[in-house]
Predict the structure of Cysteine-rich receptor-like protein kinase 29.
Amino acid sequence: MASVSFSLLCCLFVIIISQASSQTPCDNSKGNYTIHSTYHNNLNTLLSSFSSHTEIKYGFYNFSYGQGTDKVYAIGLCRGDLKPDECLRILNDTRVSLTKDCPNQKEAIMWTVECMLRYTNRSILGVMENQPTNHNYYDKNVTGSVNQFNDALESLMRNLTRTAASGDSRSKYATASAKAPNFQTIYAQAQCTPDISSEDCTKCLEEAISIIPECCSGKAGGNVVKPSCRIRFDPYIFYGPTLKLDPDAPPTTPLQSPSTNNTSSQGNRKSNTSRTIIAIVVPVGSVVLVLSLFCIYLRLWKPRKKIEIKREEDKDEDEITFAESLQFNFDTIRVATNEFDDCNKLGQGGFGAVYKGQLSNGQVIAVKRLSRDSGQGDMEFENEVLLVAKLQHRNLVRLLGFSLEGRERLLVYEFVPNKSLDYFIFDPIKKIQLNWQKRYKIIGGIARGILYLHEDSRLRIIHRDLKASNILLDEQMHPKISDFGMARLIRVDQTQGNTSRIVGTYGYMAPEYAIYGQFSAKSDVFSFGVLVLEIVSGQKNSGIRRGENVEDLLTFVWRNWREGTATNIVDPTLNDGSRNEIMRCIHIGLLCVQENDAGRPTMTSVVLMLNSYSLSLPVPSEPAFVVDSRTRSLPSSELTEHNSSQTRSSESTQNSVNEASITELYPR
């Protein structure tokens, strides 16, 4: 009973501090913006981009966007024990609350228990700022001597200040505890934005500490928050283990405070001496410099080729080490899948079967056993696996490794337990498990995953086979894009490519790709649009039966949209969803499936549309489709040419047209 009471008391105090420290000063004195202005659009774009920066592992984000007076600067900071995905999730939630609470202020800041988010129209990186300052305290008094408690607290906070200020430009964060009178323990943290100097961090924290006697004297807990730093003390532990940062990762250089200038009187006293020194040093220094440069040239001229070779060797060694870390022993996988027992088969795709397995350490995996007649060489297979394995995003299925033995080629993936999206969305019973809130999160997760492939990964990738069966769902029904068997890498500066091998799935293919073999990021946008309309309607793109008539999905959606009966599009089981959100998703889906690829939005714009309801959406034009006896959707003007110029498999719409390699590579 005592432990239950203690747990309830802890929860109560967490709730109190959460409510108290979620504060939003909106500064009208720094100017206001108008809705849909350039500044407003820049602000939405900037804040929406935070969630895509999964490469940052240390909880500090500083970005800017725009030009001139409409340029927006933003800083996000999370507590040092928060994992990157938790940090991004909380910052994203804070972004929504901040823009809601401060609807037109050019400068605003919000503190939560775990994070701080601020934006402004002036450069703030490396600038230590003390205002605005907020504080709060627990409505619980310390027991015993207040003076002794304050002494213990002050000593603890001073030690934390030194530790936090000694951090690098990735993290200035410290936590610790100390004993206080009457068997009390004080748990505390100190944190600065890591862009400021150690001196400024110390100054900011000391000023925050100096507020404690005024705001929180005799209280068992409290906190003080400023734009550049924050402190907190508490009678219960409120933080977890501090995340360990990679010591080899180069931190960004913090902006240092400007040094003070010498006074004019000091300059006058030294001026004569300086002239004499300059008169001697400059000629001598010039000669020495010329000789030094000549020697350096002689040293570097011959060995330069050796240096370049050494760099290539180092790079090759790194790749070999990485490849070795990914390679599984074939027998290990064979045992894990129980000799590839059919009982463990999860599915069958164009590249081969997928099996569930369990390694000796208990880790559950999914193993794709590629067809033996793929015709792909071992080196080519291994190189492509290395590229895909470097893709890391919460909305992509992670490739853990591979195995090569004889003609056997295995791909080892993380196991995603809830099967694929089509397993739920097209089943009249199972689709009930996906209410609108879950479907909306699935749409947003797919969009962020595609955006990562198109813009944010070190490789620019066109997936080319986005469809409901290639969207896997984890324990929390978060989507993960899978099956990069048809993905195509393109150069960073390349906008589109061409291929004579049309791969993908009919019904999800963009018309310019299905007919002419032209693919681009907009091809994936088209597939995403079809996916969105399937998720909203609960219907396959292959056709909707209405009495005696069968109508393909795009025809059905466009007709109802044009006739003002868009509610007919919505899955009848979605009786708990926001009508505005659902209609907005239909609108976005139609924008993505327009026939002219130039009219389709980029995935950056799509993510912004999904996250910002204040953005007005353009009017969509008619989708590209024609209904034939099968289930493919192609522009009618091109159907004859398409059928005569392309040889196609007789597979149905839902089957993929595959090629041998995992990816087709374009040099970057």
In short: Residues 337 and 357 are 4 Å apart (CA to CA).
